[in-house]
Amino acid sequence: MSRTHSREYFYKFMSAETALAVLRSSSLRYRAPSHFNDPFDHQVSFSFPFTEQEFADELMSEISRIVFDDSVELRNPTLLGQGILALRVLRDRVSKEQLLSHLHTSAVETGQRLSEYERTFNSALTAELTNSRVLCVTEELDNVVMWAHYAAEHKGVCIRLQCIDEVDNTLLAARPVKYTDLYPSFPPLRDYIRYLTGEKPIDIAQLVYNEAAYVKHKDWAYEREWRIHVPQIHELHGPSYSDWKENPRVFGALYLGCRISVQDAQALIRVVETQMPHMEIYQAALSRKHFGMECSRLR
């Protein structure tokens, strides 16, 4: 798998129960976006940055270009594109002024359905986003909020995950999350209209997997998150997660939370000793010098 970054490792916070399942199976848990704790995550929608009139004017321009310029080809014409192409046969039967008047009326009527197009576009986008699995990791170990939110209030653990070029390691494809208070930008109006006619496709996958799947509100920036987004060809059913195998070498170290129970700690240490003997084990504790965690190595 080709690298998208130069990092040597990431961290993954989880409960002790999840960690036992992960280490016993040598798997990483990819979750369904619909079960994320952020209701905006993977639920991004686009608001068209143009008015009905602007849309109608640009559509009129594009229709005129297609009807009166035979060099324009629609390789995969939509129903709208097929209708526009059919108007070419009228060029010799009515005056250009009459035809343009008719085209203007059609463009205005189409512009009035702009909100319908917006809903259709966003429905397709949401379907692409939600039918997927995502692995979320972070750059930081010493983050007390991450320990509280994702490691069962410090009763869980954190696992250091190694990025190893020699093995088929999905972590090599991780990408950083972009934090902003703005939704991803929509394609230019002309590109969108040519998408509607079938002249120029809009790469929905590009919008989904390079934009909407890797953006969160700026209030989440403390997480310093990276993620691997895996689209699914078939609709997923059953649990809200999928556990997918990884090479055991990916699991580099286990950090026990400062509030972990003795029973959970012992169970996890036994699993590491029997199934992941190469892993380092650390115990997290409250720092005496600052608001943070200090980790001492146990093995």
Summarize, please.
By secondary structure, this protein is an alpha+beta fold.
Describe this structure in words.
- By secondary structure, the chain is α+β, with helices and mostly antiparallel strands.
- The chain has a domain at 9-43 and 133-185 and 202-297.
- It has helices spanning 16-25, 52-68, 79-86, 96-111, 114-130, 144-150, 189-197, 204-210, 262-275; strands at residues 9-14, 27-31, 132-138, 157-162, 175-176, 178-180, 215-217, 225-231, 241-245, 251-256, 280-286, 293-297.
- The protein has a five-stranded mixed beta sheet, with helices on both faces. It has a three-stranded antiparallel beta sheet with strand order 3-8-5, covered by helices on one side. The chain has a two-stranded antiparallel ribbon with strand order 2-9.
- A hairpin with a 6-residue loop joins strand 11 (280-286) and strand 12.
- The chain starts with 8 loop residues before the first strand and ends with a strand.
